[in-house]
Amino acid sequence: MPDIKHFDPDATLETVVRLFWRQGMASTGIQDIVNATGVNRSSLYSTFGDKQALYLAALRRYLEYRSQPVFERLTEDDRGLPAITEFFTGLIAARCSGEYARWGCMVSNAHAGAENGDPQVRAVLDQHHQRLRDAMHAALVTAEAQGQLARGVDAGSSADLLALLAYGVNVRSRAGADEQALVETVKAALGVLSAPAAA
């Protein structure tokens, strides 16, 4: 007879995402996962594999369900710099208040953790970075076409800058940075890119 699962793997993986996101891989043991999900070790292992495989599945889920929709909205937005401002406003709000306040970003946390030594994890991190950078670039190209960028601003290097700024917001917010200070930092960075207002 086929093995019948007595738990929902999708819901279980979402719980695991939150656990790894909040605590990091190194600080999360299998018993922590068992306690949080209510699923025994053998069922976890038979469904997802070992802890490393479970972490990788959680990281991929985070990228697919949390990061990618935001990147797609930014890419498809036709407002240019206001869209980038809205991206950062939402990012700072999510990182500093609400249910996931001070958790940082699971991907940024992974960049700083030992888990990035795994080539498969690094591949997900690289994929995330490329999608973030591409979304910033798309918004900047739109901004350039609308005359919103200052003279001499390069959309490519500026996309790299803004991607790094997003990581900085994630890391600093996890460390307890003041929300308004992060807002002012982003405002200053975008001000450098913006064309002077018409007199």
**What is the arithmetic mean of pLDDT?**
94
Q: Tell me the helix content.
A: over 70%
Alpha-beta classification? mainly alpha
Largest sheet: none
Look up the CATH topology of one domain. Tetracycline Repressor, domain 2
Shape summary: elongated
Number of strands: 0
**What is the CA-based Rg, rounded?**
19 Å
> Under the CATH scheme, which architecture of one domain would be assigned?
Orthogonal Bundle
Q: Note the beta-strand portion.
A: under 5%
Structure overview:
This protein has a domain at 60-193: Tetracycline Repressor, domain 2 (Orthogonal Bundle). It has helices spanning 9-23, 30-37, 41-48, 51-76, 81-96, 106-112, 119-145, 155-174, 179-193. The protein is 71% helix and 0% strand. The protein is elongated and about 60 Å long. With 199 residues, the protein is mostly helical.
